């Protein structure tokens, strides 16, 4: 007897339909699984056998052949446990063969028949919905993740018996209620009003967020670099539904989803011992790394020069392209990586170079070696550079409340909406994504602004990439001010954020 059910797998962050075919035939009791299964899929036969027996059904004393089609695509993970078990029971006549024809079924089985959650449900459901499927059966823990699609019936199951009862028609399961999207008001521990002093740095952070520019902070220990970085999410605009679903797809594939969908912009802060696969993505299954998990959010890299050189250099292409392509012998996939990089570093190994209160203990050679861990091509991709010094005692003990994150967020949101409307026909969202033709179109400057930029290019010895970054930052400053044309004051402020190139790396 042959039973066919519909399931799903993953290639990167994209779902791919998989047909689960189960054939029972007379012969020696044996289970074979074909269709390029990995070890987790091969081991499903033991989980399925125990789940069926412990759910009160007898396992067939026949030859069982499971085919996962298409056979030329590698099948990975435990998502096929539930459809395989249901296929065996349908082939035995426990429930009608065609009762599950309209369903997509995914789920891992415990030995006692419970259905456990799986990763990557959202991209599977999205692809299934686009292909016309309107019924999906999945673990109860994954139900909320799939419940934001109209006209989609989500059947959550807790164990194998519930699934069988539903297809038998004896105990139909109530569909999981469809959830309506609404903008979530995020709550943040860190607020801009708590940052004492550092007005220049807070202004730079506002500009960086408004145009999605990358930010480098240089300062002695205790100057507030980490606190400022951790406060940046509080001035980011709230997520839209489209952004939320895209972020959720990535986190679902990576197995980092904690129920439901992502409602706050990601803030990722990997340790400086992180490897290239951990940061950029990779491994045997080509999973997304920190830069993709930070998509539409912030990637904070503290102690920036302490990261291995090869890890830092691996950031260059994703920072430019906004995507990362992971290629392995068994897998190739592209992940989105449109993140805002916030990097923090000390001015020297001991951290006291330029300090007003402490003496630097480093030799010139040690300082040069430390700074040269940041290559010129990578430095060029960091749009805004700011220097942070020790906070004055008067600022530290001041009772006056600083400007709140909510107030800053209003200006940031206004600037981002302006950019979104301006670039609607060009397929980009932020000033940081402008290419040369679009810069000529949208970055019109006053004559004295062009003259100032020319002078800065010569004196600061800017590269062509750094030159274009200055223009993009100036465009963002003008957007915050609500002005269409870039003026001299906008360029002057943008140029100030490149002055540290010459101060700290001028000898290169």
Question: Can you characterise this structure?
Answer:
With 508 residues, this protein is α/β, with parallel strands linked by helices. The protein folds into two domains: 2-168, Ribosomal Protein S5, domain 2 (2-Layer Sandwich), CATH 3.30.230.10; 192-425, 3-Layer(aba) Sandwich (Rossmann fold). Helix content is 37%, strand content 17%. It has helices spanning 39-42, 44-54, 81-91, 121-130, 160-168, 199-211, 225-231, 241-254, 276-280, 290-293, 309-313, 316-321, 364-371, 376-380, 393-396, 405-422, 436-442, 447-459, 464-481, 488-496, 499-505; strands at 2-11, 14-25, 30-34, 63-69, 103-105, 108-109, 115-116, 135-139, 153-157, 215-219, 267-268, 281-282, 287-288, 298-301, 323-327, 332-336, 340-345, 384-388.
Task: Please give the structural blueprint.
Blueprint: E1 2-11, E2 14-25, E3 30-34, H1 39-42, H2 44-54, E4 63-69, H3 81-91, E5 103-105, E6 108-109, E7 115-116, H4 121-130, E8 135-139, E9 153-157, H5 160-168, H6 199-211, E10 215-219, H7 225-231, H8 241-254, E11 267-268, H9 276-280, E12 281-282, E13 287-288, H10 290-293, E14 298-301, H11 309-313, H12 316-321, E15 323-327, E16 332-336, E17 340-345, H13 364-371, H14 376-380, E18 384-388, H15 393-396, H16 405-422, H17 436-442, H18 447-459, H19 464-481, H20 488-496, H21 499-505
Parallel strand pairs: 3-4, 5-8, 8-9, 10-17, 10-18, 11-14, 14-17
Antiparallel strand pairs: 1-2, 2-4, 6-7, 12-13, 15-16
């Amino acid at each position: 007897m042959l039973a066919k059910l519909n399931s799903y797998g993953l290639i990167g962050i994209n779902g791919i339909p998989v047909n689960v075919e189960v054939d029972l035939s007379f012969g020696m009791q044996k289970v074979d699984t074909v269709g390029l299964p990995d070890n987790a899929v091969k081991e499903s036969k033991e989980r399925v056998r125990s789940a069926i027996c412990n759910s009160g059904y007898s396992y067939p004393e026949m030859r069982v052949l499971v085919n996962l089609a298409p056979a030329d695509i590698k099948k990975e993970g435990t998502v096929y446990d539930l459809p395989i078990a249901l296929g065996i029971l349908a082939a035995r006549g426990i429930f009608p063969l065609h009762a599950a024809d309209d369903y997509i079924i995914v789920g891992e089985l415990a030995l006692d028949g419970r259905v456990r959650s799986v990763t990557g449900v959202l991209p599977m459901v999205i692809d299934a919905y686009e292909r016309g499927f309107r019924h999906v059966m999945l673990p109860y823990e994954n139900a909320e993740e799939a419940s934001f699609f109209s006209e989609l019936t989500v059947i959550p199951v807790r164990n194998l018996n519930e699934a069988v009862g539903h297809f038998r028609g004896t105990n139909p399961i109530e569909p999981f209620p469809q959830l309506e999207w609404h903008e979530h008001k995020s709550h943040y521990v860190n607020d801009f009003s708590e940052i004492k002093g550092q007005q220049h740095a807070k202004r730079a952070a506002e500009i960086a967020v408004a145009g999605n520019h990358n930010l480098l902070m240089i300062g002695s220990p205790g100057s507030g670099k980490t606190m400022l970085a951790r406060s940046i999410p509080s001035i980011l605009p709230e997520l839209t539904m489209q952004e939320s679903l895209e972020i959720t797809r990535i986190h679902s594939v990576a197995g980092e989803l904690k129920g439901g969908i992502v409602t706050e912009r990601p803030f990722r802060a990997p340790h400086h011992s992180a490897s290239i696969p951990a940061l950029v993505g990779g491994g045997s299954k080509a999973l997304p790394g920190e830069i993709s998990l930070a998509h539409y959010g912030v990637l904070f890299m503290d102690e920036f020069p302490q990261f291995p050189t090869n890890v830092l250099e691996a950031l260059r292409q994703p920072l430019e392209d906004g995507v990362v392509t992971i290629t392995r012998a068994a897998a190739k996939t592209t992940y989105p990586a449109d993140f805002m990089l916030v990097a923090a570093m000390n001015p020297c190994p001991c951290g006291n170079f330029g300090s007003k209160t402490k003496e630097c203990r480093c030799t010139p050679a040690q300082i040069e070696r430390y700074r040269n861990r940041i290559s010129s091509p990578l430095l060029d991709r960091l749009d805004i550079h700011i220097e942070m010094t020790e906070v004055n005692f008067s600022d530290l003990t001041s009772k006056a409340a600083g400007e709140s994150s909510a107030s800053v967020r209003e200006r940031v949101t206004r600037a981002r909406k302006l950019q979104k409307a301006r670039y609607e026909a060009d397929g980009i969202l932020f000033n940081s994504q402008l290419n040369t033709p679009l810069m000529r179109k949208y970055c019109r400057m006053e004559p004295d602004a062009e003259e100032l930029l020319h002078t800065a290019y010569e004196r600061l010895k800017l590269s062509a990439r750094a030159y274009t970054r200055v223009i993009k930052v100036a465009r963002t400053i003008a957007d915050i001010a609500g002005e269409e044309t870039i003026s001299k004051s906008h360029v002057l402020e943008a140029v100030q954020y490149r002055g540290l190139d010459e101060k700290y790396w001028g000898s290169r």
